[in-house]
Amino acid sequence: MFCVENCIKHVTSAPYRPQGNGDAENAVKAIKKAIKRALHEGADVTTAFNTFLFQYRNCEHATTGVSPAVALMRRRLRGRLDALRPDRAAGVRAAQERQVTSAGGTPRSVNVGDVVFARDYTLRGEKWSEGRVKAQTGPVSYKVDMGQGIEWRRHVDQIIPASKNRFSLTRASVCNPDEQLNTRVDIPDMDADEAFEDALDGEVQVAAPDQPLTAHLPASAGVLTPTVDAPAAPPPDASARALRAWNRAQRSS
């Protein structure tokens, strides 16, 4: 049942014929040979046995073409010869140092005894609470004394020095509220097309070439103001837009 559930095919051989199970017999022969060599040299049998297994699991198999370690873990086991290869950790550290040098960012560190604002996750409703740094518990972790025997452990991202403003500087508007209240913006209630259509609906009287421009102006007018006659009634097949324009012209006249 175990073999069926784990997709294992159990193949047996005839009894009293070790040649039918050659792979297992070869493995036993190699292990016995390593133990005999350790006994002959006076070495520790357990150490010799572990060394043999380590080398065996790192060597490529003649049948599969890959080592048992690669077949099981998709990687080779690290040995002494691997120390001669280039150190990848050194390359990673060098890249990190270059990143810090080119774009180190803002220093994030506080000293023990500094007054800070720590992020408050209690139900009191305050986002930040004032405290004092008591100790540094890690590279970027601190223990903050909040008073009354209460201590919080906070990351440096959850701590703001008391010299800085704990409130966000981002606002929807940076204008003075009084200026916003006293400022008035007149927004027309019609779009540009309607205004242009209203202008076209009226008939403007233009003075003849031999008449002065002030012939149609009141005596007290100081600015040129054309006179507009009442618009004519729209035709029966006029569009709804034209009717609205005519109604507005009627109300304004």
Widest sheet, order of strands: 4-3-2-1-5
Total helices: the number is 8
- H/E order of the elements? HHHHHEEEEEHHH
- Rg over C-alpha atoms, rounded to the nearest angstrom: 46 Å
Question: What does the average pLDDT come to?
Answer: 77
Low-confidence stretches: 169-177, 179-209, 213-217
Into how many domains do the coordinates divide? 3
Q: What is the strand tally?
A: 5
Helix share bin:
25-40%
Assembly state (oligomeric): single chain
- Terminal CA distance reads 100 Å
How much of the residues is beta strand, in percent? 5-15%
Tell me the overall shape. elongated
Structural class: alpha+beta
* Sheet with the most strands, sense and barrel status: 5 strands, antiparallel
What does this protein look like?
This protein has helices at 2-5, 22-41, 45-58, 68-73, 88-102, 177-182, 192-201, 240-252; strands at residues 115-119, 128-136, 141-147, 150-155, 159-161. With 253 residues, the protein is of the alpha+beta class. The protein contains eight helices and five strands; from the N terminus they run αααααβββββααα. The protein has three domains: 2-83, no CATH class; 115-161, Roll (SH3 type barrels); 192-252, no CATH class. It is elongated, with a radius of gyration of 46 Å. It starts with a helix and ends with a helix. The chain has a five-stranded antiparallel beta sheet, with no helix packed on it. Helix 2 (22-41) crosses helix 3 (45-58). Strand 1 (115-119) and strand 2 form a beta hairpin.
